[in-house]
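Please review this one.

:::
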Amino acid sequence: MSPIAGAVLISCFLLGAGLVPDLLQPVSAAVPATYDFSPYPECAKNESLEKKNVPKLASQFTIKVEGKTTDKDNKFEFFDSEGYYEAEGQRGATILYQDGKKTTYLYDFITGKAYDISYQTCQQQRLYPSGCNAYAIFIAELAGHSTAVADQCQFVGGPVNYLGDKETIRTIPVREWSQCVYDHKTRTLSISRYYYNKDNVTTPFGSANTPIRFENVVINGSSADQNKTFTYDFTYYVPTVEDEAVFLPESGTFCPNWTREVKAMPKLADQFTLNLLTVAQSAKEVHSLRMNFDYKKQLVTFITDSQSATRFPVTGNKSRSVYRSVHDYKSGLAFTSPFEPFSISRKSCNITIIDGSTMDSRTSTTSNTSAIHIRHANGLFGLNTDGWVYIGQKEFKDTDCDVWACLQPNVSGKSILVEAYWMQVSKYTNNSLDWPTDRQTDL
């Protein structure tokens, strides 16, 4: 990650992550550390100016930013980011685009931890002090995290001045506020400027108080940082988060410490019917399975429909086979026949001993004697293994689901990630007929 990206990390973190109702509020000077701003006239309180507070943002929002950093030699670095924040859950997410790379961060403002979940990884980091900078403190303070952020980052904010109406930014008429901020750790003094749309100007996003730009200029620091300017243009802001799945690791990413909630996974019933679709893209195969499972009667019925082709996606019926199998564990026999409901001729039935390698069977060995048994329902798909972690709530096929994830070994000895989606049935009723307590919709 470039130095600018490192500086931007918490900026983006706060930009889309930790903002509470008072998002864009100035840094409070009431923090343990202090600083004397009096030698700098631009930092003094101007009593002749109109007193007007910086507007606050919503308790839940989505925001997008185009960022630019300019050094003393007028060299530029650019980045884009998307930010999401939810005050109720004290959580946030940021997607950072820079140097052709996409980096995704999740933030937990209760535990003070950040998680880099880019490229199906889960790297836990401390929220402080790794991401402290003027913009982060600005956003955090406006978000209501002054004691958690400004104190831990050892930043001190000076007086806030309302400078009134200014020229347009990106053709939008704006109002301006300014404030000096001192960073004790780097001994850097900078001046921050906050721009919002004018009172009588409605932005394309429909909000009366929309952040338009944040700008921070170093006025006293190291020679390398002197006159360095950080500019954040807010190109999108809405007071909602359309899909709360942005606060969760993407499918295929195992991040067990992220979710605070602990919830036991439901159990499959002893009797059930399910449809299972398996897509093997590398093998260019699609397998559809309908299973009727009855643990009490020791019976399992399969109808399998397999298709294969020379390329993916698999289309047509040229390489298609459909079979019906019945496993009777009381007799230990498997009955298999082609499933051709419209064919009167060519009926056949192959009777064999149940193979212990099928998904519904298990093998036990006692005194050098092996026996085949039916698996319990929760032994299917590895649902009875240890290590399942509740991930959160996601949508699957327009259905709200609770999701659990688990790392399981495959035949090669490597770990694979398995996710189980269970329908939140309490939200779905059909007139007076209630659905079952839990119904699994995806594995």
Observations:
- Residues 3-16 form the longest helix (14 residues).
- Residues 1-31, 143-147, 429-443 have pLDDT under 50 and may be disordered.
- The longest strand covers residues 155-169.
